[in-house]
Amino acid sequence: MTAGTMPRWRWPAVIAHRCGGMLAPENSIEGLHRASALGCRGAEFDAMLAVCGTPVLMHDETLERTTVAQGRVDATPWQVLADTALRARDGSVSTARVPSLAMALQTCLSLGMAANIEIKPATGADQATGEAVAALAARLWPADAPWPLLLSSFSTRALAAAADTAPDLPRALLLETVAPDSLALAQQLGCVALVVERSCLTAAVIDTVHQAGLGIAIYTENHADRGQDALAAGLDALITDWPDRFLRSH
Fold it and tell me: Domains along the chain?
């Protein structure tokens, strides 16, 4: 995308973090339903590969924090993960199970929600994860869906692999810090946006990114007044654990 050819940001201004933020178990189908019921129109979630190559929703490389199981995600078959219970936010065992990426995308489509897939490769699996996630997303997400699908990642290798596999899917570069070469790197990767850690955001950063023709979003903004002020100042979107705090005006 170049400046002036289409809007810089084509997704909702409020996006639920890891499916439903703090409203449900992390990266769960239940989270998508709870966020949607509140009026949230977009969700972000993490995609990692099981040992068989199936993309599943998982943030950590290991299972202990968010599920009742142990071991590495990339050493566990999808058939096992599909029957693995997720932990609720308080650590108790929930009725939710680890979902596949396909399940999450189908749920978003049925709910009319925008989907931001963070490509989250296990160590050494950047290219394979980028390719698998992009291929599945391109196959399942219709071109005429209400929202385009957005791929994002901290991994430049994963983003490059996704671009090679599905060049028409929009991509965003995730950044913990904004460096002098961040814009050039995003443009080199063919990204349409930057998604930066919220403490990096300034009016100057918003202006510079917009002047380059890119959109800008932040993660993870949970402070209602600060987030609303940033949106009013030109921020395109925020990813939040508490979408209900921002939905009154967006």
Answer: 14-245 (3.20.20.190)
**CB within 8 A of 41, min separation 6: which ones?**
12, 14, 112, 113, 114, 147
Give the three-class secondary structure for 105.
helix
When the pLDDT of each residue in the chain is averaged and rounded to a whole number, the result is 96
Cα separation, 47 vs 132, whole angstroms: 10
Give the SS3 label for residue 135.
helix
Q: How far is CA 137 from CA 50, 91, 101, 103, 111, in A?
A: 16, 31, 8, 11, 17
Q: What is the pTM of this model?
A: 0.96
Of residues 148, 202, 204, the one with CA closest to residue 10: 148
Name, in order, each residue with C-beta under 8 angstroms of 229's C-beta and a sequence gap of 6 or more: none
The residues annotated as belonging to the active site are 17, 59
